[in-house]
Amino acid sequence: MVKLSDVAAAAGVSTSVASRVLSSDADARISDVTRQRVEQVARDLNYTPNARSRALRFSRSEALGLVIPDVSNSVFAELHAGVEHAAWQRGWSVLLGQIGAPGSDRAALSQLFGRGKVDGVIIQRREDTDDTQLRAALDLDMPIVLFNSVLADRTGSVILPDEHAARIAVEHLVALGHRRIAIIGGRTTHDAARRRSEAARSALADAGLEPVAEIEAGWEAPEGKAAMAQLFSNGSHPTAVFVASVNAALGAASRAMSSGVHLPDELSIIAIQDTWVAQVYEPSMTVVQMPLRNGGELAADMLLDAVTSSTPLRDVIATPAPRLIERNSTRPPKDEIVASGR
Predict the structure, then answer these.
(1) Regarding the domain delimited by 162-289+324-340, which CATH topology (the fold level of the hierarchy) does it fall under?
(2) Residues in contact with 217: Cβ distance below 8 Å, sequence separation at least 6, in sequence order
(3) For 39-54, what is each residue's pLDDT tens digit?
(4) CATH node for 4-49
(5) Is 320 exposed, middle or buried (0-12, 13-18, 19+ CB in 10 A)?
(6) How confident is residue 235, by pLDDT bands cut at 50, 70 and 90?
(7) Which residue has the higher pLDDT, 8 or 154?
(8) 60-160+291-311: what fold?
């Protein structure tokens, strides 16, 4: 097994210098040439740092916590991958956990990540957690970064471009010729859900349209299924539906088809976020893919900077921009198809 002293000897530096380079000590006065030489030697020798000894030396666990609403929800896979990648690059680990209903958040977080298990936490809030409940959950003695949520007068958030994504989705439906468009939004307790719904309404207004119906629902399949049933019962008869979350969209599509409504011939559906389920579902779901992996990397880097060098937490916008992925759940409405000869 390669030791730190082996790396130091091969690079022609002291063990102390090698240690400070490989622990990413930003305060160490070491030239870039020396840093690069040590890092290259470490790669050549396949050196793996001793995480336990490093943690003891720096009085840190060298682990981050990632809290998501449901560890089995494939929507969060890319977020997890991004956090893992950024942490791994800096020699840190990630502990994944979920929390239950609002009100139990702070106790759950303390149980999951208390007693020095992690040095900071990234939290993706539940959609049924309001701002007051979220503030109570954040009352922990460690740095915390919120993922895709903002609280007034509190820094430490990575915000996804929700407005841009919703606008892309609605503009896609309008470009196909749809004029009777409904909105199935997320719960307004969640600021990201509010941003998406407001942007969808704004995009429709810019096209000279209003939603034929707007239903506040959850972001999961059962809520989407119930929302679609409500659309059918209120007589709105949309030709297309914008859904704020892909899981809810899958539920909505299921309810439509079980009612004898054919997708996309009689109804088009588009959603925000992407999962493998949306790709293999029939018909496959047209989505606006969000930069979850990139956002996860930004969140982890922000948190690691705060933990290792006391860098103040900040608010950032994740890039790249959302991306429209056209699949089989959207097409022009029937009257437009007939008019164009398609």
Answers:
(1) Rossmann fold (3.40.50)
(2) 184, 185, 186, 187, 223, 224, 226, 227, 248
(3) 899 889 888 766 545 5
(4) 1.10.260
(5) exposed
(6) confident
(7) 8
(8) Rossmann fold (3.40.50)
